[in-house]
Backbone:
């Protein structure tokens, strides 16, 4: 990476040593409560080691590293294969940063440290059955009743809602002329009466997806973040964080996956007994993917260095996001084909790739579909007119 | 992304080159009957006098040692302005002559006293030549070699790009003036400079497409307002960004063969796919000889073959 100093190299060593000694080696459990406990224990360990809240201000309990050092942390985190934040994800990358940016002192005091210590699980309440890519079309109602908001409606695709303590919830509290007006960002206590969580099984068989229903659920007005009817702006501030350094982990994982596939192709043989690596189609796929994961890494390096220099990430973030999502799909699709008939009754290896393949469909949908990303690139990067 | 890290000095030189090319060799030259290679080679004495081809070559052979970033940036401009692969042959032939222990020849090349052309090996001892010249730089799987040739030895062939011309010749490996293995520094340079020219092509076609999509009206609005077209442009931007990021890595000190191969491979795909998309976005105009999109496509295709084609690059990527 450009512009790394001696200090950065020492920092990398420090990160590497700490991770090597502390990353959990046992398998993440599939059962909900055990999974939550696993994710929270890993978060707690990072807190105890002084590694929680990378990039958060020190007074909020975080570790305010330089952008380069944040990048190094995530690189090493991905390289060693440390568990993803899992149930801690929304708290660490959405809700926490939003409260830092827009919350009151009371809201921050109550919520930030428990997120970092692995005590509170947060979930997101943005998408609705009728508002997916068109988030501003959300219709979950929040009626003001004295010093409370009374919520009725439903949210969907809510990961970890079944084990969450809090939710970052977008509700329509006002009329407003434009659809973006009249939305509020509120802290929802998931133990409030009137909430029902129904699990949704994903195509990969996972069960941490949910639909959440609200029936006259009451939220105190003091839980509004960033002002009543100002939630769209607050939400957009949150979405920006996700495009920061966090995705570096996913990238490093992809690099490791490609190297793993190359190793597999060198060992494995096809149905004619030929080494897979000697098959031209396999070579073409592996060589291209190896070059592309490098390109992804190089693009992120460049964006990080640019952000470090100019202070703000450019609109090019949507380019990296689209490239990354589609590359992920190409890689797992390729892996699935490489497994051949092994997929019918998989060993551990084939199970990994088969599951990865099924899960890869998520990436071009979640957090803005690839079609929406292409619109953003066309309109915000290239300046083409809106349709 | 390449642009974000180029040094101020290098950027200044590259900008000067871009302005000079814009003036001396504007794209519309290529739609005039006399505007092809003739117009370009007419500019070469000046180009050599400005020391652009030797910008990163040793001073001992007449280069100016301005560094890989400057050279990479200049060749990206060469690609963007549709300079022929002959200009690549000049730099590479000088580089190979110097690395192969023929400094006098390298000097003559940079002075313009010899006209190098690029050639790739065909079957049965034949080689395919892009354009024409009296010194051939043969770029193949076995490495790089230089061969003297006389015009009468070149058998004219149908040219994939008729603004360049093409020929076949029998080449005896034993007659090579010098030969370098695939691991030679000059081969890294070839990969990096092809990547640079392909980046220029990818960027130029993205700009052409974007501008056309923003202005060409059908059904009462710019065609770029339709997602079918907008998304083609977005994909072009993604490919261009990926190629640009790898070009930056290839220009760093210590870049190795796989860095340069990754850059050449990704940029070649970006250049070809972007040029193809541009032809599509320009519709009927895109299919005409007048539209530069087809020239970008042809140049990108030939440049990819000069670095070993898809399979050659794949071998480099999987070598380690």
Residues:
């Amino acid at each position: 990476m450009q512009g790394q100093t001696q200090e950065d190299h020492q920092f990398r060593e420090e990160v590497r040593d700490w991770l090597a000694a502390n990353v959990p080696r046992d398998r993440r459990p599939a059962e909900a409560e055990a999974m939550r406990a696993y994710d929270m224990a890993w978060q707690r360990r990072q807190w105890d080691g002084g590694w929680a809240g990378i990039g958060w201000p020190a007074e909020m309990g975080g570790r305010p590293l330089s952008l380069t050092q944040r990048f190094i942390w995530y690189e090493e985190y991905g390289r060693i294969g440390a568990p993803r934040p899992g149930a801690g994800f929304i708290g660490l990358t959405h809700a926490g940063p939003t409260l830092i940016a827009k919350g009151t002192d009371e809201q921050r005091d109550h919520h930030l440290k428990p997120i970092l210590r692995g005590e509170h699980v947060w979930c997101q309440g943005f998408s609705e059955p009728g508002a997916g890519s068109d988030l501003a079309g959300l219709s979950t109602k929040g009626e003001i009743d004295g010093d409370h908001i009374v919520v009725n409606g439903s949210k969907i695709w809510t990961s970890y809602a079944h084990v969450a303590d809090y939710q970052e919830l977008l509700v329509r509290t006002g009329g407003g002329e434009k659809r973006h007006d009249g939305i509020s960002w509120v802290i929802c206590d998931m133990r409030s009466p009137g909430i029902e969580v129904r699990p949704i099984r994903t195509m990969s068989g996972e069960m941490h997806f949910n639909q959440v229903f609200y029936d006259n659920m009451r939220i105190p007005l003091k839980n509004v973040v960033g002002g009543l009817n100002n939630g769209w702006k607050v939400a957009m501030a949150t979405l920006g964080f996700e495009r920061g350094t966090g995705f570096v982990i996913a990238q490093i994982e992809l690099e490791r996956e490609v190297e793993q596939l190359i190793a597999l192709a060198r060992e494995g043989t096809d149905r004619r007994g030929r080494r897979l690596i000697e098959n031209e189609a396999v070579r073409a796929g592996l060589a291209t993917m190896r070059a592309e994961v490098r390109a992804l890494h190089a693009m992120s390096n460049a964006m990080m260095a640019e952000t470090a220099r100019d202070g703000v990430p450019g609109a090019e973030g949507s380019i990296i996001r689209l490239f990354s999502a589609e590359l992920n799909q190409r890689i797992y699709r390729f892996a699935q084909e490489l497994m051949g008939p092994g997929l019918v009754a998989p060993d551990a290896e084939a199970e990994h790739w088969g599951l990865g393949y099924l899960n890869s469909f998520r990436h071009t949908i979640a957090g803005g579909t690839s079609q929406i990303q292409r619109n953003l690139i066309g309109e915000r990067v290239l300046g083409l007119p809106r349709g | 992304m390449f642009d974000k890290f180029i040094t101020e000095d290098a950027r200044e030189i590259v900008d000067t080159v871009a302005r000079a090319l814009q003036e001396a060799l504007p794209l519309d030259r290529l739609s005039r009957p006399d505007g092809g290679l003739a117009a370009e080679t007419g500019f070469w004495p000046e180009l050599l006098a400005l020391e652009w081809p030797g910008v990163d070559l040793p001073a001992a052979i007449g280069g100016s040692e301005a560094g890989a970033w400057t050279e990479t940036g200049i060749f990206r401009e060469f690609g963007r302005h549709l300079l022929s692969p002959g200009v690549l042959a000049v730099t590479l032939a000088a580089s190979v002559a110097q690395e192969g222990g023929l400094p006098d020849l390298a000097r003559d090349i940079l002075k313009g006293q010899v006209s190098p052309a690029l050639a790739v090996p065909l079957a049965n001892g034949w080689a395919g030549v892009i354009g024409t010249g009296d010194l051939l730089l043969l770029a193949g799987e076995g490495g790089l070699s230089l061969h003297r040739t006389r015009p009468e030895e070149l058998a004219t062939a149908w040219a994939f790009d008729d603004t360049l011309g093409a020929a076949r010749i029998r080449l005896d490996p034993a007659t090579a003036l010098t030969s370098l293995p695939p691991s030679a520094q000059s081969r890294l340079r070839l990969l990096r400079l092809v990547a640079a020219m392909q980046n220029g092509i990818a960027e130029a076609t993205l700009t052409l497409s974007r501008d056309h999509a923003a202005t060409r009206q059908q059904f009462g609005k710019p065609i770029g307002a339709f997602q079918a077209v907008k998304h083609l442009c977005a994909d072009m931007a993604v490919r261009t960004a990926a190629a640009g990021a790898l070009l930056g890595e290839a220009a760093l000190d210590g870049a190795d063969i796989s860095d340069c191969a990754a850059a050449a491979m990704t940029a070649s795909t970006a250049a070809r796919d972007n040029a193809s998309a541009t032809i599509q976005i320009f519709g009927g105009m895109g299919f005409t000889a007048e539209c530069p999109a087809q020239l970008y496509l042809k140049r990108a295709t030939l440049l990819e073959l000069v670095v070993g084609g898809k399979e050659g690059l794949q071998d480099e990527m999987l070598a380690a």
In short: The longest strand of chain A covers residues 209-220. Chain A touches chain B through 41 residues (CB under 8 Å).
